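notes to self, project folder thing:

trying the whole complex as one job this time. last attempt i did each chain seperately and stitching them together was a nightmare. two parts in total, labels are on each line so i dont mix them up again. if this works i'll redo the older ones the same way
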Amino acid sequence: MNRYQQTFERLKKEDKIAFIPFWMLGDPNPEASLEAVKTIAEQADILELGLPFSDPLADGPTIQAAVNRSLQAGMNTEKCLEQIMIIRADFPEKPIGLLVYLNLVLQYGINRFFTDCKKTGIDSILIPEMPVEEIKLVESAAQENQIDLVFLLSTNTPQDRRQKIYDHSGGFVYTVSKPSITGAKTDLSDDTLALVQELKSQTDLPICVGFGISTPEHIKALKKAGADGAIIGSELINIYQKEGLEALNDFALSCASST
Amino acid sequence: MTNFIENSGGHFGEFGGCFAPELLQPVLRKVTQTFEKFKTSTTLQSEFNELLRNFAGRPTPIYHAKNYSPKNGAQIWVKREDLLHGGAHKTNNVIGQALIAREMGAKYLIAETGAGQHGIATAMAGAHFNLPVKVFMGAKDVARQQVNVERMRLLGAEVISVDTGSSSLKDAINEAMRYWISHAEDTYYMFGTAAGPHPFPELVARFQRVIGDEARAQILEQTGKLPAQVLACVGGGSNAIGIFQAFLEDKETKLVGVEPAGDNIKHGLTIGRGVTGCLHGSISKVNCDENGQIEESHSISAGLDYPGVSPIHAYLDQLGDAQYVGITDDEAMEALLKFSRCEGIIPALESSHALAEAFKRADKMNADEILMVNLSGRGDKDLHTVFEYLEKS
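result (full assembly):
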């Protein structure tokens, strides 16, 4: 069993869902970022980490700002992987997912990227602008290095494509709460909760929901709907920016206790 | 060769693809399906052709630029897309895409714009088809293309100034994509160039094909022979692919794309100096640093100021079926001034890149040879830039 399977197995026994915080590596600078990631990782079941890319077209203002801070602080792909290696050493059991835009992978070299990700202990990679139809590009590199590919799936993804996504996904299905870019939102739509129930009836893959998840109440609602995990990104960044590390820790704690 | 674009399914060798977020995949599929319907529908095609004729003013003429041509060199002819309604070739594309949008049942149109020409064309099409338009434009371009901003507003469009990233065309595209992700149900994104995710490269190439189809027939009719070379400026590359397509099977005709070399340090030479990468939905050549961060481009012409390029051009370059060269800001400006004064036509700064390259080449060629330049737009929009340049030098 890989780290994802072990984690979801454990959560099932504990009757919990996964708290999956997202952090942009290097935000607001490499040192503070490492500290923030370690803080949230304590509470996390799974970590989702982003590599900063200058043109993140699936991301809203909060993550764009995080990217800008990270790049201005001199972050790049190699430094990100070095940081992940440190995080991996501190948290040997927790699955680490990477969110990376395609151009960063292409410039690093597809095979080299997946090989180095494996070395640092990354479990899955999500390339937000790569639909399942274009998977050929990275599939063999992923398989050779036993890295799961995670895909986005939304309320408007038609059934025939959902099946393709299940067929090629590993780790979990990253379900998007509703068609939008990333960012903290106030309410969770009924559509999303209905989608979770629908997906659960179609696949055995864990269903985790992200984009717009921002409160412990959202996590509780997702659990009730049968989801396997909740991904929170923008709100963590907002809280850290406004109130600092201690508030980030408190928020992560309250999220973790709502699973 | 001509059908390689249509039969590609969006992949041109290693280039192209549909690298857009999952949230856009359903709407992109709908665009593809509607475009397939257009390709087989004589009704839609005749509506397209009728609008090109009576709304846009096609066919545009070709013109022998005798005064601009060198004394004992090749003769330069220009395809007068500057005479098209709206002042540039962009109108061909928006008429076609507005028909697609209408067929899809879209209620709103959005577009990105750099120089403002595609924004104006979209605003015109929106007015004609009675569809409200939002145009995303980099804050930097809003400042340097004020007249075009006013034209868009006059036509009823809302201009949204984008100040994220580098506040230029690439950021306007990012914002338009982000907006589309949240509004794909009732909104159609009029992509301005033959780049972006499938089916846009193919779609835009199809709607711009009319330029080359006309030009090839016209030059044969008027001179009895084909041009030795066809030249066009390349930013994203829609006017170039528009004129190139008709000549792809003509072995005696060389195709030359002219990219902006800027001041030679800062530039927009995407094919010239870029690497294979992914920006805005397709794999093509891009200008980025070694880590993959997209670099700001530079050109005196806002319409060529883009760090990406059509995957179709990246492919033609790789095959050797077209050649891509660079012209500097200074050379383009010189061509604009010279062409204006000796021919009585003010070319757009974008098109002036192709004119500059044509003159260089014509000088070394025989007088019985023809160079065809796509004069993709008129230069009235550039007056401010021209006078600023003249004051400095």
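what i see at first glance: The interface with chain A takes residues 17-23, 25-26, 164-165, 170-171, 173-174, 177-178, 181-182, 184-185, 275-281, 283, 286, 288, 290-294 of chain B (CB under 8 Å).
need to look closer tmrw
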